[in-house]
Specification:
mainly beta, binds S-adenosylmethionine
Length: about 160
């Protein structure tokens, strides 16, 4: 398996602590994706979409853990039941609002990732594809959802606390 970086994210956040933990807590945070010029033609027609799914490398993530105590809880959970960055394949996923595309620069809002995060892929967000039908359960998160709008990260996944 081999992946290549297709661009880099530019955001206001230079440290993993005291920053938004999801796009829903990053309302208004402006970011830019600088795409490698080799992929410029692949941006054609993306501007017709209001939102994009951005996949990126958590390039400053600590080593993977099996159990984590996530930002929105005080109890440990299995890693795969969380969005913590310390994953076996440290890939982040954010649905961002697309503002405009100027050449190889894609301007986005609600950025929740560190400045310098390498971008792996961009896909259009399509509710008919991406919104499941029927009721949705959110497990342990159901009880903490009202905190998300104001949630900020602390140092539990800071890269200096590697293990
Ligand atoms: C909980 S993750 C969620 C990111 C994404 N929306 C997801 O669900 O995959 C967001 C947190 O990861 C950390 N983070 C963001 N970008 C990172 C990066 N490039 N390397 C390491 N940690 C990062 C920050 O502490 C941030 O608050």
């Amino acid at each position: 398996m081999e992946f290549q970086q297709i661009g880099i994210l530019r955001t206001p956040f230079t440290e993993p602590t005291d920053m938004p933990i999801q796009p829903s807590s990053a309302r208004g945070a402006i970011g830019r994706i600088e795409i490698d010029p080799a992929w410029e033609a692949a941006l054609q027609d993306l501007d017709g979409f209001s939102h994009i799914i951005v996949l990126y490398h958590f390039h400053r993530a600590p080593s993977p853990r099996l159990m984590v105590t996530p930002f929105l809880d005080d109890s440990p959970h299995g890693l795969f039941a969380t969005r913590a960055p310390c994953r076996p394949n440290p890939i982040g996923l954010s649905v961002l609002r697309l503002c405009r595309i100027d050449g190889v620069t894609v301007e986005v809002v609600d950025a929740d990732m560190l400045d310098g995060s390498p971008v792996l892929d961009i896909k259009p967000y399509v509710p008919e594809f991406d919104q499941p039908s029927g009721p949705v359960r959110c497990g342990w998160l159901d009880k903490g959802m009202d905190e998300i709008a104001v949630a900020r990260s602390d140092d539990r996944f800071a890269d200096s606390n590697n293990d």
